[in-house]
Amino acid sequence: xxxxxAASELAPCLNSGGLADFVESLSSxxxxxxxxxxxxxxxxxxxxxNKALGAKRTKTRFSVRVGGxxxxxxxxxxxxxxxxxxxxxxxxxxxDRSGLYGSDERDYQDNAARFIFFSKCITEIARLHxxxxxxxxxxxxxxxxxxxxxxxxxxxxxLFPFSLEYQGNFWSHDFALTNLPETYFSAEGLEFFGxxxxxxxxxxxxxxxxxxxxxxxxxxxxxxxxxxxENVLREQASKLEGIAFGMEDQALPVVKSDTxxxxxxxxxxxxxxxxxxxxxxxxxxxxxxxxxxxxLLQALDLLPSPDFCVALLxxxxxKSLEGLNIAMRRHAGRFVHLPEVDGALFARILSAGDFILVxxxxxxxxxxxxxxxxxxLIPVMEFCVGLSDLVRDFDPVTGSGNGLVFYRxxxxxxxxxxxxxxxxxxxxxxxxxxxxxETDFSWAPAVTRLEELHRRLSRKTGTSA
Length: 465
Fold this sequence. Notes:
Rossmann fold, 2 domains, elongated, 38% helix, single chain, 20 strands, six-stranded parallel sheet, 17 helices
């Protein structure tokens, strides 16, 4: 199958965060499964200066209209492992800059023009190569679904929002740069509270929208997790696809740990605790959110057991700082906050840990929790989090399940789940620890789901697959 993937980042050559790693994994695993994959990217300065990548100019040139101008595009090309081909959209006035999206912590003022141009070029590449499906990742390429729809190209589109928080919101006057009929700037189209919203446009006009897991599909349609787009997602619910994306093995380090190293790590972080009876709960602030952290701090007061030890990893927002400082004084010896964690420190934390505790919403990338589970930490988490497709509540009667799940976002539910973990029989604890290690975080199930989606879309649009 010919698959076009369009994005603004790709690890390791264009990388400002998790988006680049996701695109690299998505493209390489589809390529490994025998698909013909082309990734379309902007020809940023980073690419221009990356001699090792070996990007070369192709004979492909075309012009696209942006507002009142016809803008020339040059296509450059490079090869990646697993048979993945890279194609770069070159226009120096837009992409030959020091930053990808801005500089000095400010967005470029012409980002709407830059990524409308990019999306129109994606559309032209789709016209030239006739892929079986186009995957559009993030708001930066989402507008391509609108142009493909408007031009009636026989190419099914799948939008991967990656993060609903980043939407590509621009003022209404930028709509003129799209050259679309005015009817597209409406509540049913690109308009969003008076602005033009690229991600909303992608959700509305793509043939399918892939979100990280079935449970996240439901949660994204609520105010708590929809980032303002929950009504749009509810209106487009029939096209939402929950796919639990995999993670690379190198992102999930395995730490060799035994009773001796576990006891030593416990003493390092919890000097007053008994290493034999202590139960260490590891919490990641970035994956948890401020509300979950506040619940955790209250739970420390509600559960004064000296065996309830907590390691809180990562920075904490201002709203949680006061409660955090009080907890550190009140629970010294069984509560530690580590705002900056490198690989060596994380390894020692994993050695000390017994449980991975997620008292609030988990970010879709899930890497922290997955790395913890790979090392045998038992998940204790709220049902609404991003790993709920992979974590099932343990039933001591049937013996099914691989974690401890609670179903209400409240202090009482969190406290009950922690108590359940503290009093977990040794035999059940060993079973759950082993099942956590064996949880499948690979990309294989996600690729299978995507292939099924491609076939459905092909039948729906009348294209071949």
